[in-house]
Design brief:
Structural class: alpha/beta
Number of domains: 2
Largest sheet: 7 strands, mixed
Helix content: 25-40%
Radius of gyration: 22 Å
Strand content: 15-25%
Number of helices: 13
Bound molecules: flavin-adenine dinucleotide
Shape: globular
Distance between the termini: 21 Å
CATH class of the largest domain: Alpha Beta
Length: 468
């Protein structure tokens, strides 16, 4: 039987970062991934378009997750999450080839607010459109700047209630929440105030960037690191069962192998980890929020700069819930991966993301499923026309994923990207030497999940006299 000091389950962002950090402590580490491709929720894929007669019409590369790398930091900045992860993983800043966002837009009802990587832009918008809210908004910014995360603090504080201490205008409240919920709330219609502060910092105080070349640029760096550190990678292999022994764990794998390890770091989610531990999965521990995304390639994207991300809500009140229809057409994100510095080419993509109901998608047969995807694609096109009426609409390629796609490729129950509302900030789920990392540990997004992998490895993987 192969023996390891640590096994990391899942080669998404948190798993890769965790394995790299553990190996740098001199541990013998295995990284086990069910899928054949790295990245999990932040992977990449390609699609071939064929004519009805099977003739190959074209091929395009897609990113799964990367709308934006949050927590942007300029080279040389200090005390920023992005700088911390680069330092801990020994990745040179310049190798990421980061491009900053043009600007993003919050579009609610008929109101629009701009923000970019300088919070002063947002503050000026508040001053122009909500002058009586400026003082409260500035106070909120200060509270977020001074907030620190106490991982032992498990008390839930409703942000919808808390924000009233600073902002009395309901439209501005909704506008602040729109990006925050869409980019990181696993709660319906609210978010714990601790998470709110993390997201506010990540989106509004630090902002968005994108590696030139997309997520592959980051993966190429991480892959090279893994190769140089000789991490054992098992791709296309799922962990099927974990058996807890006195001072080690036995793992049964889908390729028939059985391995032994002192420590397990699981990035697959809390209920999913419970499942491989053979424990009962509580319905409440499974996330409710799923998404559909339509990615449309255009031959000729706008010459003028598009907003990087438009957070859209049709009505005055933003509802962020599992919809009771296939998708919620009242709100969406429109992301333009070309909306970063120096868009050089003519062809470009727009990505439209809607809240979606996993259960309703699951009930469809394959013919209905394809029809409904086409229906959603039409809604996405119509929304683009409405939000960007001047947009040149010469479409050349399209692809759509649903909560079922997310479930198929990442094994997250319900295709819930942000997992459940219960998070385990110290990684401890009550099993000795097994730690949760990634989404259900509580740090979301690309930067967040990398930070999660690193901090859980630092806290629980570092060999000490007491913790050999
Ligand atoms: C459409 C979309 C857009 C997004 N946009 C952004 C964005 O713009 N900015 C941002 O910061 N974040 C974004 N995210 C979120 C971000 O991608 C995730 O928060 C992050 O990638 C989560 O990483 P993780 O390591 O926690 O989990 P995952 O990526 O889910 O990794 C878990 C891995 O475990 C594997 N696995 C599951 N079960 C097993 C098993 N039994 N055995 C072995 N392996 C297993 C899975 O295949 C998967 O690879 C987006 C996500 C999506 C889907």
């Amino acid at each position: 039987m192969k023996k390891f000091d640590a096994v990391v389950i899942g080669a998404g962002m948190s798993g890769i970062a965790c394995a790299l950090r553990l190996q740098s402590f001199g541990l013998n580490v295995a990284l086990i991934e069910k899928h054949r491709v790295l990245g999990g929720l932040n992977s990449f894929f390609q699609r071939v378009k064929k004519s009805p007669t099977g003739q190959r019409l074209g091929i395009r590369q897609f990113d799964v997750g990367l709308h934006a790398l949050t927590n942007f930091a300029k080279k040389g900045s200090r005390n920023r999450p992005l700088m911390k992860i680069l330092r801990q993983l020994r990745i040179p800043y310049d190798s990421l080839l980061l491009k900053e966002q043009n600007y993003s837009l919050i579009h609610l009802d008929n109101r629009k607010i701009k923000f970019d990587n300088n919070i002063e832009t947002f503050i000026k918008e508040v001053e122009s459109f909500f002058p009586d809210q400026l003082e409260g908004f500035n106070k909120l910014v200060e509270v977020v700047k001074n907030s620190t995360l106490d991982t032992s603090d498990t008390l839930y504080v409703s942000s919808r209630e808390k924000i009233k201490e600073f902002i009395s205008d309901e439209t501005l409240q909704e506008m602040i929440f729109l990006p925050v919920f869409y980019y990181g709330s696993s709660w319906e219609d609210d978010i714990d105030f601790k998470q709110f502060c993390i997201m506010f910092q990540a989106l509004y105080l630090e902002g968005f960037s994108r590696p030139y070349g997309g997520i592959r640029t980051l993966f190429n760096i991480l892959k090279e690191k893994m190769q140089s550190l000789n991490i054992v990678r098992m791709m296309g292999v799922a962990v099927q069962k974990i058996e807890q022994k006195l001072d080690h764990h036995i793992l049964e794998l889908s390729n028939g192998e059985v391995i032994s390890t002192k420590k397990v770091f699981s990035s697959i989610g809390y209920p999913e980890t419970q499942r491989v531990l053979g424990k009962k999965v509580n319905k409440e521990s499974v996330g409710k929020l799923g998404f559909v995304e339509v990615q449309i390639f255009y031959n000729d994207l706008l010459e003028k700069k598009l907003p990087t991300i438009c957070f859209y809500n049709k009505t005055k009140k933003f509802v962020y819930r599992n919809p009771d229809t296939l998708i919620d057409t009242d709100s969406a994100i429109i992301c333009s991966p070309e909306g970063y510095d120096e868009f050089e080419g003519k062809e470009g993509i727009l990505r439209v993301t809607f809240l979606a109901n996993y259960k309703l998608w699951k009930e469809l047969d394959s013919k209905q499923y394809d029809e409904k995807k086409e229906y959603v694609e039409k809604i996405a096109r119509d929304l683009i026309c409405e939000v960007y009426p001047e947009h040149n609409r010469k479409e050349c390629f399209i692809d759509t994923f649903t909560p079922l796609t997310v479930e198929k490729y990442t094994s997250h129950m319900n295709g819930a990207i942000y997992g459940a509302t219960k998070k385990f900030l110290n990684g401890d789920i009550g099993i000795k030497d097994l730690f949760l990392i990634g989404t259900d540990q509580g740090y979301l997004g690309i930067t967040g999940s990398i930070l999660s992998g690193i901090s859980m490895a630092n806290m629980n993987g570092f060999p000490t006299r007491h913790n050999p």
